[in-house]
Amino acid sequence: MSTPDESTTPGLAALVRAEWSAFRSRGRMAALLVAALSVIALAVLPALGSHGSCSQGPVEVPCPTDPLAPDGRPVSDLFFFAHRPLTGDGSLTVRLTSLTGTITYPPPDHDEIVAGVVPWAKTGIIIKDGLGQGSSYAALMMTGSHGVRMQHDYTHDTAGRPGGVSAQSPRWLRLTRTGDTITGEESTDGVSWTPVGTARLAGLPATARIGLFATSPGDLTLAPVGLGGSVGQVRFTQAVGSFDSVSTTGGVAAGPWSADTVGELGHTDWEKFHRAPGLVSDGGTLTVTGSGDIGPVGTEGGRTSKDTLVGLFAAVIVLIVTAARYAVARTTTGTAPSGRQLAARGLVLGGAVFASGLAAVAVAVPLGTKLLRDRGLTVVPAGPLTELRVIVGTAVLLALVAVLALALGALLRRAWLAVTVLLAGLVLPYLLVVVPLLPDAVADWLLRLTPAAGFAVLQTLTAYPQVTMHYAPYAGYFPLPWWAGLAVTGAFAALALGLALRRAPEPPNATPVDWR
């Protein structure tokens, strides 16, 4: 038989039902609707107000798009290629005696050129599935500052020996094809060889192209903005590789080297009037000049699913205000909510926000992405699982923010104070970071140590060390993985809720609740 005290103490389920009835009978459901519509509307309106177009003189033409790798990802595939057909198995061996280049001088002296190579300038030997951009390849190369590398199919990178190259310290390179397997080796004397790596190029045709290449990505400089922040600027560069002792075995065709560009080169003033991309043969020395890059691309000129969720900020502000006011709302008896009632409010609020946020984001992301593409804008694709993770993760983030606001409101016992604290500690840091206004180091720490860390759930891009990019939050690169960012925001919410529950009054004659 229940004691009188036990009979007057409602269980958690009863409290949740009561709080849900109170929650949906007032204007809080309208607030959730406003937040959801903000997410959807601000995914649609920017897309409708944008239009991507390109022209050739007065004629508007479709904008060029990035080539696609065999796995469907957008890539950069732009270089000069001196090549011969390779039928079946065979190998190419060369001695590289120099890697030089040029870099456009910084503004305002755009016409000045300085000698030098950027860290990821590349020259070496390559096997490729034809001349089409995005086709499968394996390459063994010397880089500007990262020594010998073997790379294949745009994302794979294996390090060889560090150091540079000169006529006094040449580098010997060898690529060997055996079926679909490509083996890269290097040597300092052409006698003793050290393996660098292997690659399997599935579906490599019986006749591929093998030869010498040169490419050089733009030189990244950072222009100061805001309060110490910076944005990336890219300068044109060119790489020149000199080879001798070129020999082939197996199915490599004899005869002269064919000279082609993969992609379009030669359009800059420097290339037109000073040094064009190409191949120069002088006795036994082959000199190859090129620019561009071979690898995955980042967000240059492109959008991601993050750009479809600009309405998230409006939704977060609405939810913070709603949750903070809900925290200090009196119960039906006119008293402040007890600890058990506060816990019930957290469950009701978190569940309602998650459900409404999930519905809104599930509409906003695919709809906004489609509209951006329809307007001629480039959208960096994300796989279906990544897109699903962004949708669900964003709904979880909204629920955590709402619970954090509820807990702060109950802990501080002033709705306006809780709103102020969260605007300063969550919304403002993220806005300062994505604009960008702050130095990269400060921005990184803000997105590690504040509740704004949870916005990492919006990240869909991968940072590749072998790709020259400004890996900063404004460009879509966050310092924490998505799950770690959510964990930081969740930890803030859990801590605030725990402190609020300890401080909340208990109803008179209350007995402990069985939480099982």
UniProtKB/TrEMBL annotation:
Tagged with keyword Membrane: yes
Swiss-Prot/TrEMBL keywords: Membrane, Transmembrane, Transmembrane helix
Domain of life assignment: Bacteria
Residues forming coiled coils: none
Membrane-spanning segments: 30-49, 309-328, 348-368, 388-408, 415-438, 480-501
Protein's name in the database: ABC-type transport system involved in multi-copper enzyme maturation permease subunit
Upper taxonomic lineage: Bacteria, Bacillati, Actinomycetota, Actinomycetes, Micromonosporales
